Amino acid sequence: MPQRERSNSQNNGFSNTHEEFNTGYQKCSSTLSLINTLLLLVLGTTFVILPSRVVTLLLGNVTINDGAITIARMAGGVILAQGISCLVLLMIPSSSNPCLAIQTTRVAIAMQGVTGLVWVIIGLWNDEKRGSTKSAIISEFAEGDQSIGDTFGLLVFGSCVLFVACLALMLSLFPAEPRGSPSLIARNEAEARRTDMEEPLLSSREHTDGENPENNEHEPATTITDPSESRRTDEGGVTSRIRGTRRLLALAKPQTMYLYIGCLTLLVRLPFSLSIPHFVSTTLGALSQSEYERARREIMWLFLLGTIDACLDFWCIFWFGYANQRIVRGVRIDTFKSIMKQEIGYFDKTTSGELASRLNSDCGEMAGDLTWFFRFSIESVVRIIGITTYMLLRCPRLGACALSIIPVVAVVNKYYGSWLSKNARKVQDALAAANSVAQETFSCVRTVIAFASEEMEYNKYVEKVDEQYQLNVRQTYMTGIYYMFVSTFLINTVVQGSLLLYGSHLMQQDQLTGEVLLAFMLYQGQLQNEMLNLFQSYSSLIKSSGAGDKIFALLDRTPPPPGTGSTSVLQNEGRSGAIDGTSSQSPASAVSIRLKDVSFAYPTRLDHPVLTGLNLTIGTGQTVALVGASGCGKSTIVGLLQRFYDPISGEISINDTNIQQLDIKEHRRRIGVVTQDPTLFTGTILSNITYGLEDATMEEAIEAAKRANAHDFISSFPGGYDTEVGERGIQLSGGQKQRIAISRAIIRKPSLLLLDEATSALDAESEEIVQAALDTLLNENQGITTVIIAHRLSTVRNADMIAVVDKGQILESGSHEELMQQDSGCGYYKTMVQKSMGNKLVVP
């Protein structure tokens, strides 16, 4: 006891230390965030004012003097200073929001264009009002006066600064807690300690039923991983990325026609879109020279080109979006088809949540990003080519200055794309794990609530979500660094500052006009956007390849051959409507079964054999009852008869034909199954009774329900056979679900009937009703071979043969009378009967 108290005291001290450190961490994070924001806003203020003045000066109909050149150089220096400051900020620890500084920078830069435009427009409007031949705003600037344009521009800029400052302040004072922050670590540790004291670890639980790995509802999910895929993920080599990207692009091949139409529309649109900055510059140039008639013509062309561009943009988005939806549909259908082809062992190792994530999230992300990659990559490449051509034709030296940054950006994109590819795969795995936990919890929600385990399941889900959160935060931070370096520093800062410095120098030497320089500034902004769009397209393709690796691994997975033989010893017997669409009323023909030296272990536990050299012969039309302790292999035998698995060794024969030579689908259609916990699908009672039989009639469904003692309770519902059963039959009682399952087995007219503990989970009243239905089924279908797993003495007693299963082998077999005649010291079954409680067999 004292030791535990000391341990608790140490834990509390450790927690308090973490809390104190967390308080300091939050204050430091808030302070750094606020300092970063204020610094960027101060730089942004200077960055807005000076370049706008320079552009206004250069457009003015005045002589370029040393003062203008000095101001231009000051503007370039301020821009470079801002870029250097951005690089310095990279060294400061990230604040609560890694992108706050980045977004603030971008907002401040965006203010430059808004304020500059307001100054120019208001100044020119003031110029027209006064009838001056010289720009009013330039005149007032030279005279030291402040125009109405300056006043209005400063008001707009001040409002924007105030808004951004308030937003930054709120984000600084109320930061979102990062994944690795000390407070979260302390809370998780405290929660783990509390959980450890209150209840034992659930991760140490093992299967209690050795024959079926799905019996334990709370078994930790096991994720299947392809070793080759792991190597690709770990290496992330160029060859594997190229191979995956090529295969990803091949998905778009069936939609080539729609992509061609979208690309054609895109190419027709681009000349109209690219010409808009040219007309903007010529319009402002005409206004600055008081050529109002020419300015009006340019503005009319601007409106016309903008309208055409908008209409073509609609059709471009439509055709690419249409192709996108068709690709997503095709990939999801193919993926679902591939999942349904897998063997049962695959589902033992792969959780339903992971498969749902592959089908929904991965398919949508992979195919969706692929389509937009085609659009934005083609559009960006063509725009970059067009802008480059314009710049080099208008002024080769200034154009070379604007384009010199492209190789640097390409190198940065290469390394960032490699990292992004690896991280995208990890994100997909983390998302699948979180979805798996959520789906398992929702499907077993009643059990979770019954055991008051909501908090435990919540913590499990939070743990998985936090893994994805960590990866996404890391990606967000790296993306912020990328945009800060490439967009803010290289493109906005270095290129724009260089254009202003070098452009002012060329204008001083009368080798460039202000109108051309303005066009260059506008096109440089477009060039920046297209380069970023091109990289975003590449990033989307990289992330798509991360999701695509999982999908392709699933599509490429070839299950073990289910038996290629076309032999079907049951083909012309029983119901054939599910095969050829024609109903057949011919009675079912029983089969003989033989298991010879069968050994088996589940794929998830190959070192734990369930059956070892089992031998069992079932005659045609016989009813055989399998009894034995839980985990001895009874349900495994039923699974092998349905060929969910193939034995490791030995042979299973149906009518003297190896089961592996039978047509597997035909074989399963001739089997009727009623399990302990029957599965009902969302839909009506009628759809569940006729499940798998497209030709079944209403009369056949009613007849099957009557024989299963289900017709009366079905008729009592207002909707009758059209009553919705809810998800997994949640709207029905256990006995009602079991009788519907019996009806489903009866209507198939099976040749082999498998009853796996069909009444063990029911209350006494429901068990009596369901047992009566089973007795009726067995008595009326003497020609059906039946295998029963049961602990009800009356059911076992009436079987033609009773097989006692123990440790994966048949310990003894015979009729009830034969087994009861054995010596009490040797008869396992006799001992079970003697120890039975009422009508229940008790395993010794």
UniProtKB/TrEMBL annotation:
<dbReference type="InterPro" id="IPR036640">
    <property type="entry name" value="ABC1_TM_sf"/>
</dbReference>
<dbReference type="Pfam" id="PF00664">
    <property type="entry name" value="ABC_membrane"/>
</dbReference>
<dbReference type="GO" id="GO:0015421">
    <property type="term" value="F:ABC-type oligopeptide transporter activity"/>
</dbReference>
<feature type="compositionally biased region" description="Basic and acidic residues">
    <location>
        <begin position="204"/>
        <end position="220"/>
    </location>
</feature>
<keyword id="KW-0813">Transport</keyword>
<dbReference type="InterPro" id="IPR017871">
    <property type="entry name" value="ABC_transporter-like_CS"/>
</dbReference>
<keyword id="KW-0067">ATP-binding</keyword>
<feature type="domain" description="ABC transporter">
    <location>
        <begin position="593"/>
        <end position="832"/>
    </location>
</feature>
<dbReference type="GO" id="GO:0016887">
    <property type="term" value="F:ATP hydrolysis activity"/>
</dbReference>
<feature type="transmembrane region" description="Helical">
    <location>
        <begin position="481"/>
        <end position="502"/>
    </location>
</feature>
<keyword id="KW-0812">Transmembrane</keyword>
<feature type="transmembrane region" description="Helical">
    <location>
        <begin position="257"/>
        <end position="279"/>
    </location>
</feature>
<dbReference type="GO" id="GO:0016020">
    <property type="term" value="C:membrane"/>
</dbReference>
<dbReference type="InterPro" id="IPR011527">
    <property type="entry name" value="ABC1_TM_dom"/>
</dbReference>
<dbReference type="InterPro" id="IPR003593">
    <property type="entry name" value="AAA+_ATPase"/>
</dbReference>
<dbReference type="GO" id="GO:0005524">
    <property type="term" value="F:ATP binding"/>
</dbReference>
<keyword id="KW-0547">Nucleotide-binding</keyword>
<keyword id="KW-1133">Transmembrane helix</keyword>
<feature type="region of interest" description="Disordered">
    <location>
        <begin position="190"/>
        <end position="239"/>
    </location>
</feature>
<feature type="transmembrane region" description="Helical">
    <location>
        <begin position="299"/>
        <end position="322"/>
    </location>
</feature>
<protein>
    <recommendedName>
        <fullName>ATP-dependent transporter ycf16</fullName>
    </recommendedName>
</protein>
<dbReference type="InterPro" id="IPR039421">
    <property type="entry name" value="Type_1_exporter"/>
</dbReference>
<keyword id="KW-0472">Membrane</keyword>
<feature type="transmembrane region" description="Helical">
    <location>
        <begin position="104"/>
        <end position="125"/>
    </location>
</feature>
<feature type="transmembrane region" description="Helical">
    <location>
        <begin position="31"/>
        <end position="50"/>
    </location>
</feature>
<feature type="transmembrane region" description="Helical">
    <location>
        <begin position="70"/>
        <end position="92"/>
    </location>
</feature>
<dbReference type="InterPro" id="IPR003439">
    <property type="entry name" value="ABC_transporter-like_ATP-bd"/>
</dbReference>
<feature type="region of interest" description="Disordered">
    <location>
        <begin position="560"/>
        <end position="585"/>
    </location>
</feature>
<feature type="domain" description="ABC transmembrane type-1">
    <location>
        <begin position="261"/>
        <end position="543"/>
    </location>
</feature>
<feature type="transmembrane region" description="Helical">
    <location>
        <begin position="152"/>
        <end position="174"/>
    </location>
</feature>
<comment type="similarity">
    <text>Belongs to the ABC transporter superfamily. ABCB family. Multidrug resistance exporter (TC 3.A.1.201) subfamily.</text>
</comment>
<dbReference type="Pfam" id="PF00005">
    <property type="entry name" value="ABC_tran"/>
</dbReference>
<dbReference type="InterPro" id="IPR027417">
    <property type="entry name" value="P-loop_NTPase"/>
</dbReference>
